[in-house]
Amino acid sequence: MARLGADSLVLVDPRTGATVGELVCTPAGEVAARVAACRAAATAWAARPLEDRIEVVRRLGAALSAKGAELVAVLGAEIGKPPGEAWTSEVVTLGELFDHWLAVIEDELEPTTLDLNPVNYPGKRVEVVPEPLGVIALIMPWNYPVHLPMRTIVPALLAGNGVVFKPSEHAARCGALLAEVFAAVLPADLVVTVQGGPAQGAALVDAGVDKVVFTGSVAGGRAVAARAAGHLIPCALELGSKDAALVLHDAKLPRAVEGVLWGAFHNAGQDCASVERALVDRKVYAPFLEALVARAKELRVGDDVGPLIDERALAKVHAQVQDAVARGARVLCGGEPTGNGYFYPATVVVDVPLDCALWREETFGPVLPVAAFDSEDEAVAMADDSPYGLCVSVWTRDVARGEALARRVRCGVSYVNNCCFSGPMGGASWGGRKQSGYGVTGSSWGLGGLVQPRTVVVDRFFGQKEVWWYPYTPALATMASGLVELARPGGARLSGLARVVGGLVGRWKTS
Ligand code: NAD
User: In this predicted structure, what is the pLDDT of residue 355?
Assistant: First the structure.
């Protein structure tokens, strides 16, 4: 983590709270020049053949994999990620991300040609060609500081864009390490890194970029979206959530317990897609809860559940728990900061009033409120009763029923018997509804947000004029109404044809 000074970041190890260094911020006044440099590099990059771009991005993937151990070490020192988790969630996932985009990009960027009726449109060819947007501003959070930026950078580069990347102030060392790899592999200034906090983020939005891709809090997203609107530039927002896990009466309980446990407590609960509410069928509520609490007590602070990012986050999480307890909730395990660094133990809470912050607001920490439901309709209604809508998971042996139920919840990602793991997959869409944001990362839908489609119309018909050009005579109207009649389902074909022919003859005579 870091404390943000006027023009530098004081780096702090969240595992101990000790200051470990300092990093100079990019002066906000220099951001526009960085964007201009990126634009020049992006213009040259877009002009290169796609095969060249693919080759360079392939080398970038290899260079990042080779840095795996170093990335894992920085992820530990900077945000306290346990090594096993850092490898699986941030490095292994990169391989899959690159593999996906390198395999599909040629097809994805293939122009589409319209199938035109040669009678209506003689000699014409219409193509829709995806072109790069230009310079993408990438404003990122700290909780997955490697795979989150890369899930946009990889398709953005392949599509021919440049990127100006602002890592979170809390993940500046990780950002600096990524910047080293970019500098070693990519053309100069194609991916530019801007270090700092909200001031640098705001300067970046103002600096003449073509799109903003923002991942972070609702408050940050709202501010960035308002700013982007001022420049009329598009914005994609991946924000927070309060995702529910629905445990049905026929769930395979040991798997549901382990899955919900991991969903709630991995990355110390600091995941936009964490399981933040467990809704359990009353028929299995008691055994589920007993097993969940037993397992949560076994999780080791530090090894299994890393620290929260800073003292403010720790205080906020604990305040939500205390507020719920003051209103009648019961803590079954955890519930108190450990006193070392910014650690908070895995915490399970029941009897939480449904209007408490702990039930309604995002809890960026390892705290899981659990409640019972009596019917599946009630479970869906409870899941949907949230200002957010990123993911849901349903746990059941009846996979078809689980899928139908998971697809009823108003959100962007539905899981059956699993949770939280598909965000880094290049081929899967990721994006939420309601206050979880708008815009998509991943899949063709995400790539669509990184290109500008250009329609190209080429006419090889060298007649003097088109039938719909001047002069506007009654014959034109007769012919056009005939065309509509011919195309209309159940239309009077003969009368339509007569009008088309009569109209064409009339047009021919006037010309
Ligand atoms: P944050 O909003 O505090 O910061 C995110 C980034 O935005 C940082 O780089 C920050 O410097 C910048 N920023 C903040 N305010 C800004 C402003 N007014 N103008 C310009 N830039 C600004 O979020 P955070 O604490 O770093 O991240 C945690 C949040 O991110 C959680 O809410 C989490 O759910 C969300 N998140 C969402 C996803 C997703 O895919 N939906 C993924 C990861 C994290």
Answer: 97
Count the residues in the chain: 511
Q: Token pair for residue 189?
A: 């200034």
Catalogue the active-site residues. Answer: 238, 272
Please list the residues that pair with 165 across neighbouring strands: 138, 193
Residue 422 phi/psi, 5-degree rounding, is -90, -5
Q: What is the pLDDT of residues 28-77, one digit of tens each?
A: 999 999 999 999 999 999 999 999 999 999 999 999 999 999 999 999 99
- Contacts of residue 268, defined as CB under 8 A and 6 or more positions apart, other chains included, come to 80, 305, 306, 307, 308, 344, 365, 366
Contacts of 1 (CB under 8 A, 6+ apart): 11, 12, 14, 78, 79, 142, 170, 309, 310, 342
Nearest ligand 1 atom, CA 227: 19
Closest C-alpha to ligand 1, atom 16: 198
Atom of ligand 1 nearest to the CA of 313: 25
CB 166 within 8 A of CB 196: yes
Q: Is the pLDDT of residue 473 over 80?
A: yes
Within 6 Å (CB) of ligand 1, which residues are found?
139-143, 148, 166, 168-169, 197-198, 201-202, 215-217, 220, 223-224, 238-240, 272, 362, 364, 390, 432, 436
Amino acid code (one letter) for 390: L
pLDDT tens digits, one per residue of 284-343: 999 999 999 999 999 999 999 999 999 999 999 999 999 999 999 999 999 999 988 999
Ligand 1 center–CA 465 separation, angstroms: 56
Q: Is the pLDDT of residue 242 over 90?
A: yes
Report phi then psi at 299, rounded to 5.
Answer: -70, 135
In sequence order, which ranges of 67-196 are alpha helices (DSSP H)? Answer: 68-79, 83-86, 93-108, 147-158, 172-185
Please name each of the domains of the chain with its CATH number: 31-239+444-453 (3.40.605.10), 243-425 (3.40.309.10), 466-510 (no CATH)
Q: How many CB atoms lie within 10 A of CB 312?
A: 11
Digit-coded pLDDT (tens) for 67-98: 999 999 999 999 999 999 999 999 999 999 99
Residue nearest to ligand 1 atom 40, measured at CA: 238
Each residue's pLDDT tens digit, 262-297: 999 999 999 999 999 999 999 999 999 999 999 999
For residue 397, report the phi and psi dihedrals to the nearest 5 degrees: -80, -20
With 90 as the cut, is the pLDDT of residue 4 above it?
Answer: no
pTM exceeds 0.85: yes
Q: Give the ranges where 206-333 is alpha helix by DSSP (H).
A: 218-231, 253-265, 282-298, 311-326
